[in-house]
Please model this.
Amino acid sequence: MSEPFYKPRFLRVFTGLVYLYLFIPIVIVIVFSFNSEKSLQVMQGFSFRWYSDFFNDPTLMDSLLTSVQIAVLTMVISTIVGTALAIGLVRAHSGTAKGFNILMLVPLITPEIVAGISALLIFSQLGITLSIWTIVLAHITFSISYVTIVVRGRLATIGTEVEDAAQDLGASKWESVRLVLVPSLWPAIVAAGLLVFALSFDDFVLSFFTTGEDAQPLPVRIWSMIRFGVSPTINAVGTLMMVVSISAVALAVLVPRLFGRRESGVKVLTGAEE
Amino acid sequence: MAEEAIRIENVTKRFGDFTAVDDVDLSIAQGEFFSLLGPSGCGKTTTLRMLAGFEVPTAGRILLEGDPVEDVPPHQRNVNMVFQSYALFEHLDVQGNVAFGLKRKKVAKDEIVTRVAEALELVDLSSRAAARPNELSGGQRQRVALARALVNRPRVLLLDEPLGALDLKLRRQMQIELKAIQREVGITFVYVTHDQEEALSMSDRIAVMSDGRVAQCGPPEEIYEHPREEFVAGFIGVSNLLEGKVEPGGKVRIGDDCLPVPGLDGAGNGDTIQIAVRPEKVAVDEIGADAYAIEPDMFTVEGEIESKVYLGVGNQLTLKLGNGSRLVALEQATYRMRADEQWEVGQKVKVGWHPEHCMVLS
Model:
């Protein structure tokens, strides 16, 4: 054979088919969300009518708001707790900490249905009324693990000498964490937060088990809509959810790069606002 | 001795069962360039970290300018440290890094600006004031770390292998610059290194550490010319070790040869002792020819060239003596030598050295 790295054509075709298989359902949802008629088979014309339906439907808007509230609360709480946990686990240097490092992975590999049912059982045993707070609590259980794992990776590359250096230069222990450690971790914290936002925003299983009388989060709401027949509005909702999730993940990837150059020297130096 | 900057009194530091620093007793003078030299794990960095306040001694006292500081936390000690990894704050630019200590001390803003500019001037980095640490070269990062510590005008500057990460050429250049900066600011430097050449060329005094204790402490010349024990003789430079028995009249018998050795005061007749001779102090001449390297008052023995390594600036010869012991001789090439004058392996030669170049090891 003259060409040592001969690439058979069928591999390209095969790769193309795999990608088609992955993206066709998504593309169909997006395309039909702009259909002017109710049909889910034939594209009859372009319109925003399903989007306008969505924005004019008060229950759907309530659900959207609820989903955003849940995602933001989950993001804020789990980033704070997860970061603190990562710092503690890395800096503790104890055998127990090693054990907890492995335990961190358990929420990630627990089947969501199991996590959902156990959350529901605990809440009902304790007599806690289901509300958006129970959903937030359930989401936090797995989100903390994501934050801790992302932040821990960054911590390992920073090392302990920067904290020592801060203390050597007159910062108390707490100041060294606040002024040096957390700012050094910031790109990882923000990225982890955005990731958690995306995960919480489109979570269905946990939300389904822990939703109460309040407005349902969007994925649960969509599920109950489908039970009464498929409306093209769902395509519009799906498309919008995809935009939100993709934006959050894209930001999570971009943020660490944006942090390369942030503050001007003068501002850092004097603390003055320019 | 000038006024005392640091006093380390019988300091011991244990980590569990491991004794990192074992009853160390040192006094460092104001304005001195003092090096802690030793292999990794000898306790030099732990000693430095106790001076900075990152470790608390298990026993003993540490005094900074007369005040005991064992229990003072790092941020309240008037010392600053240059870390091995530099430990720059990546989220701040160069001036932000340098200003960090002054801001913690609530120094007035315009004074911060002046002092930061001065410190950057001192390390020749004024043009990079607004750069981020990740945009700097290794040598520049090193200078930022130095400026960040010096700007606080500490009483003592602690340096933990500050040049370890630099390549050889930059290292040599920074050694000279560091020494010049130290002279300019007049601050006491405590310098941790495992590089004997670095310690010899920069220090006013060196403490050689081994297994947590100070093996020997003194000026570079004294450490090099008069090592008191085998570890020091072997760690600082290369030494030829010879074992012999003490004989009356200040002589030592090595095999069939009996050589005069000064400084035998402590040893009794018949004791077995070790003596060391530096390779560059050993002279080698052809047998039968006129004396070329060997001088009249040298002690001489006969030997044979066992191997030869050409070094460019000279030759390194391994010599086998009549009694079976081996010596390494470093023969410096000089303007008197001809390029084609070469030793043959197996050649019989005369070997000599001045008796005062024999170092008696305990």
In short: Residues 167 and 176 of chain A are 6 Å apart (CA to CA).
